[in-house]
Design goal:
Elements: E1 2-6, H1 10-21, E2 27-31, H2 35-43, E3 49-50, E4 61-64, H3 68-78, E5 87-90, H4 96-105, E6 113-114, E7 116-118, E8 139-142, H5 150-162, E9 166-169, H6 172-198, H7 203-209, H8 212-218, H9 225-234, H10 236-258, H11 262-277
Parallel strand pairs: 1-2, 1-4, 2-3, 4-5, 5-6, 8-9
Antiparallel strand pairs: 7-8
Length: 282
């Protein structure tokens, strides 16, 4: 295939390397805001060359792997150039807003767009973080539109499976609710804890005593601020619901501490431990 990728960092770069490893990409063309990033991606053999919009006319596949906040502008820019037989997919962590962007910008070419979310993020970003096996054994969620043909959905599924992913489908609304709970809220909490410590006068002392528990909980605070800003704003409504639920849970724990209610704390901690110890990522 001739593949065009907008955003050649962790998600887009790994997608390219995976397709090349699978023998499915004859040529990968890169697009991005930074010539330095594109040059780095070329040196790392992630892309074969930088592209021009005219390259999209005969591209077999386009991946939009930019931060969600940039996707509408990308869609608007590429819409006039997408060929009739080009499959377009994305790697955005939110789906309702991405679908809304696509409906606004793709027009009759909306049928060619299959929204996707690869669940394979990492705290590192940029082309140097890309790796061919990033998606192996990881989930990719497709949120097909009613305008999509079953054949094109199946094609998108096979493309992601060729990268090693396990593909499932959801409705966009269901997707955003689920990931507000298990992904977006944990990132928000991790950023909040590290920021709280960062503005304290004794932060160096605090960090000098931080050990594995702090390290494990805050690892994801090393993720891209731009990307997570966009995700939080894009999934604002669902995330606010989850944040309110979490604050109520903290209120319960605070009350138990205030009242020295050892049984309540043990009950909460025991239930949480049992759920966590019985859970394994799939």
């Amino acid at each position: 295939m001739k593949v065009a990728i907008f955003g050649v960092g962790l998600i887009g770069g790994s997608f390219s390397l995976a397709l090349k490893k699978a023998g499915l990409a004859d040529e990968v063309i890169g697009f991005g805001r930074s010539s330095q990033t594109l040059d780095e991606a070329k040196k790392l053999s992630i892309i074969d060359r930088t592209g021009a919009m005219e390259d999209l006319n005969d591209a077999d596949l386009v991946l939009i792997a930019t931060p969600v906040g940039q996707m509408r502008a990308v869609m608007k820019g590429i819409s006039p150039f997408i060929g009739k037989h080009t499959l377009v997919t994305d790697g955005g962590s939110t789906k309702c807003d991405v679908v809304e962007f696509a409906r606004a910008e793709f027009g009759e070419k909306l049928t060619q767009f299959i929204p996707a979310h690869p669940i394979a993020g990492a705290e590192n970003s940029g082309p140097a973080a890309a790796k061919a096996d990033l998606y192996v054994g990881k989930k990719v969620v497709l949120t097909p539109l009613h305008e999509n043909s079953p054949e094109l959905v199946e094609k998108a599924k096979k493309v992601w499976e060729a990268c090693g992913a396990n593909v499932t489908t959801m409705k966009p609304e269901e997707h955003d609710g689920v990931f507000a709970t298990v992904s977006h809220l944990p990132h928000l909490l991790s950023f909040a804890l590290v920021h709280d410590i960062s503005v304290r006068e004794n932060r160096e002392l605090l960090l000098s005593f931080a050990a594995s528990g702090f390290r494990d909980f805050t690892r994801i605070a090393g993720s891209s601020p731009e990307m997570w800003r966009d995700i939080c704003l894009s999934n604002r409504d669902a995330l606010l619901v989850e944040l309110d639920r979490y604050m109520k849970e903290l209120d319960v724990i605070r009350a138990a501490l205030q009242e020295k209610d050892a049984e309540k704390l043990k009950e909460i901690f025991s239930e949480a431990r049992n759920i966590r110890n019985g859970w394994e990522p799939k």
